Amino acid sequence: MSTGVKEEKTMPKGGSICFKLIIFFLLNISSFVVPVAGFSLKTCRISYETAICTKSKLRAVPHDIPSTVKGLDLSANQITKIQVSDFKQLSLLTQLDLNRNYISQIDTGAFANLISLKKLNLNNNRLVELGDNLFDGLSNLTELRIYRNRIKAVESTSFKSLKSLTFLDISDNKLHRLTKVHSILQHLPNLQDLLISNNDLTTFHSWELTNSSLELTSLDLSQNPIAVFRITADVFPNLTRLIIGSKKQKIIWDVRNKTFLSRVSTLDISGLQMADDIKTLLESFNSSLTSLRMNEMKNRLTALINISCTIPTVSTLQLRRNKLKFIHSNLFQLCINITELDLTDNQIQQIQDEAFRFLQGLRILSLSRNKLPSVPAATRNLPTLAELDLSRNNITSLECHDFANLTKLRHLSLYLNSISALKGCIFKDLIRLEVLKLQTNQIFKLNGAFKKYLTNLRQLHLNENKLTAINYGEFQGLKSLQNLSLHENQISELQNGCFIGLTSLTDIKLQSNNIKINGINKCFNDLINLRRLDLRDNHIKYSDSSALADPPFSHLSLLETLAIPAQHYRGKAQLPRNFLQGLTNLLEFNTRNIQLLSLHKDTFKYTPRLETLDISTNDLRDLSPDLFSPIQSLKSLYISATRLQSLDFFINANLTKLEFLQARKNQYSVISKDVIKSIPALVYVDLQSNSFTCDCDNAWFLQWAQNDNQTQVFGAYNFLCNYPPDFKDTKLFDLDVSSCIVDIDFICFISTTCTIILFMVVSFTYHFLRWQLAYAYYFFLALLFDKKHKNKQGPNQYDAFISYNTHDEPWIIRELLPKLEGEQGWRLCLHHRDFEPGRPIIDNITDAIYGSRKTICVISRRYLESEWCSREIQVASFRLFDEQKDVLILVFLEEIPTPLLSPYYRMRKLLKRQTYLSWPKAGEHTELFWEKLRQALKTRDDHGEDRFLLTVVNRP
Fold it and tell me: By the 8 A CB rule, do 107 and 131 touch?
């Protein structure tokens, strides 16, 4: 296994590539906040949450497996040792397959973190000893397979943690003694299936298993040289399936009480040799046995059958590999209760006509793998027969009476015979037949065998025969047929109407025939419910992309899968632009290897639901984004070996749902960031066998492929460079790209951290210091305007600037102006009268305040709610604090409660430090108010002058 980069080479910059990358980063820094990311495994691939690392010549468990996988397949490698750190991060793993390795050592605690594991396969390794607490941590394990190792010793605590285990296969090891099995069983309270075959056990004594709480329902002791099988206690109260048998040793059967095995329903004694009469053995199961397997019994088979058939509960009898070349008429005379009989692989050549006459309740009969030259007459007239298997015989022909009176037959297998032709009368009695298997024969003519009778047939297998044509109405009697297999024949002609009557057909296989264009013109029009159509490896070829007058699939509106690829194609081809017309529900289209030169942009406008598209191994060279615009639901795309020069068509193809992309063996050398970003849902991409340019053009792609996040880049560690010449055949992942790409992860960290801190500071400042910030802002403005006015060094233009709200303007006009300007002769500045039109409001305000000796703020509730009034009093107060002069006069037109002033922080501070006046209430005299206001206007504003208190009202 590769352990890392052997040699790093600095990636060439390719002129100003690095400079352009940096500029690109600076212009698009926001795009790095949530980077597009991918990952690549050195030796594995991820499929449906399973990491598949099989046949990768691994010598150790790879450490780059994502922690999110739920399955891990490490079978067929060269792993020798399992270490504590191997599965430390895989706490979500539910299945682990270590089959066919060289594992001889497992560290204690190696499985401790696999808390979710349900199935563990350690078959075919080299374990010799199972040490203390070996399976510690596997408290949820339900299935453990340790078949074919070299286990000789088992420590008493090895299986202590496996409280949930229900299935254990420890067959084909070297346990030798049942006491070692007992050390396993004592810790497995929920074990139901135990397989300990071929462990060289020589005795089986129930006392060796005492004190074990056994819930076993199935026990396999086969292939052990057990000389004595002795049960003296009820150690298997729930056992329903027992397999025991050996070709090496005769067994002494000693079961003291028939109730000890009273629940066993399935018994397999294949190959068993008894020292005593086998009747003694069978009597131990007499009240419960339903299924009996006696395969490879060397002698006295007739006696065994007679004994077995006298057990009234036995209904299933399996007699495989017993060399029964001849079945005589009395062999099954006592088997009146048998419903299932399996005579597979017995070299049977002849069966007497009356051999099965006693089996009047027979439902399933298997005569497969024998040497029968024809359908035996013994199988006729079995009124209850539902399944008949005559496959793998030497049958050459079928006659009209072969299946006479089998009116309840539902399943008939005749595959792998030498049948050459059918007859119209063969299936006349099979009125309930549902499945017919005739594949792998020599059939070249159907002769109307399917034009009637088989009205309930659902599956018909005629593949691997020698049919050359399908004639009109050949299957018209099969109105219930759903699956039809005609692949691997020699069919070159499909006549119009050849599938008439198949209105229920959903799946038809026609691959690997000689079908040409003219053979598919109208032959599918009758298959109105067809879902899947396979036409691979035929000779369907068009010379141009012109529209067809009669598109071949226009009537197949329910079709979901269509495949037309070729295996060996000569010459170039086109696809008619309306070839897929009518396929409005098509989900998968495969047109691999038909040597297409191009695809018209309207090819897929008829298939809006398409999800999987395979156009690999064609000579397309370029793909237009417009080709994909009608199929926005596409999830899987195969474009390998299409001679593509670039993948830039993705940028405008809008394939936002694409999850799987296979694009091997093409001619592009650069994968740009824009291409990857244009397919945001991508979870798997295979870009193997392309010639990559190893300069800064691929720097971003290299970094992206190495990150562990969403997209798996299959085989990326084997990508090779082709350019520049100095880097030819260098692995892309061996290159150092630090010289030409910004550390995006670091920038993301810094950017994110700064953004968060800035947000927190702004939020804190706004909440606690918003008034101080406002003060600072206006104080800054005041400084600016103060400097400007100081530079002018001119006299004040006005005696006072009046700051008021427009709602209080009537009081200003009727009361204030007549008194101050009319009677007292002061020069006043009012915004509605004296502001310069066209200037910014804030400029007019500041000029008016700094151009007046005093500022009079006429305060009311409306005044406090006004934004511009607030700014006027702020500027005036800033002048007050800046110049340290008494330039501000506050006049309250109405009584304002303290709670209403609480939000106006600056106003409250001014009231505590500054003079102010209150307009008298109704009925009170105003002479004192006007006199105090006159004195306030007259007071000089020199620093340190005594202030004149204008009111006796106390405010907070």
Answer: no
